Amino acid sequence: MNTELLFREDAYLRSATARVVEVHERGIELDRTVFYPLGGGQPGDTGVLVRESGERIAIADTRKGGTDGSVLHVPAPGASPPEPGERLALEIDWERRYALMRLHTALHLLSCVVVAPVTGGNIAPDKARLDFDVDMGLLDAERITRETNALIASGAVTETVWITDAELDAQPERVKTMSVQPPRGAGRVRLLRIPGIDLQPCAGTHVRIIAEIGGIRVTRIRSEGRHNRRVEIALAS
Fold this sequence. Notes:
Layout: E1 4-5, H1 6-9, E2 15-24, E3 27-30, E4 32-33, E5 47-50, E6 56-64, E7 71-75, E8 87-92, H2 94-113, E9 118-124, E10 127-132, H3 141-153, E11 159-164, H4 165-169, E12 188-194, E13 198-201, E14 216-223, E15 229-235
Parallel strand pairs: 1-4
Antiparallel strand pairs: 2-3, 2-8, 3-7, 5-6, 5-8, 6-7, 9-10, 10-15, 11-12, 12-13, 14-15
Helix pairs in contact: 2-3
């Protein structure tokens, strides 16, 4: 069953109500959710599901359920599962999610400062990184920090854009990340547009105004193999 992804329309939605569809060993399926499932280098959300009795079920991770479009809310060990059909209140760990949103958006800007094929990436609440196929001598931490922060200071408003699979196939240069391809098959693909700066497929969560990132610092640059140069960043505050 397709889970309604409420964060797609509003990444700032911290809570909602939902009905339990199914409970099994892999997790709890709901008819709708504000919890982002692991994907595209962004970790799954954590938080709680609250039963009508007030009992709180801690959610330790969120994953995609499979090809049916379902989302699995993975309870913490020892948590009592709800019953199918039960109504729950959903609450994400907002502080963690917002840090992920800021860092995810910052990586879009980083990919515009370091102009090279992106071979991988990952986001955590306290840091994020992109890997590039580029000569090590072209990566200068001070310059990357300065130019990324200059883009952040521009305060551009991010936009969600949808195009068809065929339109994306006709614009392969839009796909910057070599290791992760945007999902096809649903007929359309979601893109993040930062006007005048970037436009690329991305299903993650991002801040509305890039000034919300507040600034970044490059914490480390290192070689990760013949074709990978890793740039790690953290939020400045």
